[in-house]
């Protein structure tokens, strides 16, 4: 029997057959052109993975991650822009989520310059100490009784970031600070935007008060060297820069500190070693300072290990390819979302000895000093899109953590075991709410 017996002879049928054949050919040629990485599940001919939300490349190994972030950082420098991201960033005028462009490069350059200048002085240490003194006095009332320190950590971090950006400080546990945590978009307009314009009116280039002043100065100085390039860099970009620093700094820092305290309560022997180091280097009569940091290597290693184990931002901010490129032997087309799986990098048994064990010593050299950063430790990312606030967050977290260990010994609530496993989501790992005991040491 001939094939024609099974096929009605009509133009519509002929057209459908031609369409299917054409689509199959296109699919086959595209697969040959782009040697995609292997995918979970089964890809259906023609449909492929169209039943999934989107085609995304997930990078789980450090060599490929460094290829994306460093070696070919420009190829992967775009961001995955969604409607919610565009809304939240006022049309992608921030640094963290906007695409790679001449405006972005200038924006990043000026913001980095302002942060470097600001960090050269004692402002950060003063802000941290001021916030700590207020919070520690409040926390002393909970000594020897179980409580969850989440509100106090939120206050410390929020107070520091507010002072760093604008000067001044929050009222402790103020309604405004609670609103900040709940209504990001409203705060960008009503709080950050208003504060920025208020500070801009009183800006004096010979009397720099806070980070906003340094950002305004950096933009003013660039008007001479950059000329017309600055036309695209508006007040909205600076407001979004402050929002990047503010929200990223608040969220990641408070989660990191909460996990670090849970780890100390879970590992009392490690806590005791860190506290012995703090007592030896700093004593008990003053708060730890930035100048103590090189001599508090074990304490910093504890913090680094907590950041590895917890990985509060397991997927970071997603990238998107701005051209056809490759990862290893796999070809990746322009416009492909690429996710760096920081959780996988931090828990890769091929990269870490005793990967699930809490081992601060893995970051120390034979002399007990901080050694070179392990290649697979990337909580802040790397390359062109490395976290803008990394060199603020590291000393800030160290000062706060060392101060909390100096003053209190942390332990589980009586009869309970500390739960250090996170509440997981694709975007964040959150510590589980639980009470701890604090014993005053000084």
From TrEMBL:
Q: Which domain of life is it from?
A: Eukaryota
PROSITE patterns recorded: CYTOCHROME_P450
Q: Does the keyword Cytoplasm apply?
A: no
Entry keywords, A to Z: Heme, Iron, Membrane, Metal-binding, Monooxygenase, Oxidoreductase, Transmembrane, Transmembrane helix
Listed transmembrane segments: 12-29
Region feature (Disordered): 421-442
PANTHER family linked:
STEROID 17-ALPHA-HYDROXYLASE/17,20 LYASE (PTHR24289), STEROID 17-ALPHA-HYDROXYLASE_17,20 LYASE (PTHR24289:SF20)
Question: What is the name of the protein in this document?
Answer: CP17A-like protein
């Amino acid at each position: 029997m001939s094939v024609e017996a099974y096929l009605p002879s009509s133009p519509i049928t002929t057209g459908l057959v031609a369409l299917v054949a054409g689509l199959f050919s296109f699919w086959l040629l595209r697969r040959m052109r782009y040697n995609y990485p292997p995918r979970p599940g089964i890809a259906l001919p023609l449909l492929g993975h169209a039943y999934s939300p989107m085609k995304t490349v997930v990078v789980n190994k450090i060599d490929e991650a460094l290829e994306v972030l460093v070696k070919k950082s420009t190829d992967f420098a775009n961001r995955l822009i969604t409607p919610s991201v565009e809304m939240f960033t006022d049309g992608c005028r921030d640094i963290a989520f906007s695409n790679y462009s001449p405006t972005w490069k200038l924006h990043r350059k000026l913001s980095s310059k302002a942060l470097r200048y600001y960090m050269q002085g004692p402002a950060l240490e003063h802000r941290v100490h001021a916030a700590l003194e207020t919070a520690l006095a409040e926390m002393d009332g909970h000594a020897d009784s179980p409580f969850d320190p989440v509100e106090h950590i939120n206050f410390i971090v929020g107070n520091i970031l507010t002072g760093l950006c604008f000067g001044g400080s929050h009222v402790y546990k103020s309604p405004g600070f609670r609103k900040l945590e709940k209504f990001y978009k409203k705060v960008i307009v009503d709080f950050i935007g208003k504060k920025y314009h208020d500070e801009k009116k009183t800006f004096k280039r010979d009397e720099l008060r806070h980070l906003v002043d340094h950002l305004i100065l950096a933009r003013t100085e660039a008007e001479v060297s950059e000329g017309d390039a600055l036309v695209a860099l508006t007040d909205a970009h600076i407001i979004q820069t402050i929002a990047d620093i503010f929200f990223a700094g608040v969220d990641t820092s408070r989660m990191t500190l909460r996990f670090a305290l849970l780890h100390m309560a879970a590992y009392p022997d490690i806590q005791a070693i860190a506290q012995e180091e703090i007592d030896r280097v700093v004593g008990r009569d003053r708060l730890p300072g930035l100048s103590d940091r090189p001599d508090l290597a074990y304490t910093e290693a504890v913090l680094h290990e907590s950041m590895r184990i917890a990985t509060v931002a397991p997927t970071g901010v997603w990238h998107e390819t701005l051209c056809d490129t490759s990862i290893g032997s796999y070809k990746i087309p322009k416009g492909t979302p690429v996710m760096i799986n920081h959780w996988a990098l931090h828990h890769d048994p091929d990269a870490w000895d005793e990967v699930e064990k809490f081992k601060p010593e893995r970051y120390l050299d034979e002399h007990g000093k901080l050694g070179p950063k392990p290649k697979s430790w990337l909580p802040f990312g790397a390359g062109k899109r490395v976290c803008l606030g990394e060199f603020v967050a590291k000393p800030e977290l160290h000062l706060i953590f060392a101060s909390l260990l100096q003053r209190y010994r942390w332990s589980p609530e009586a009869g309970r075991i500390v739960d250090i496993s996170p509440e997981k989501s694709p975007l964040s790992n959150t510590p589980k709410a639980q009470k701890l005991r604090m014993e005053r040491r000084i």
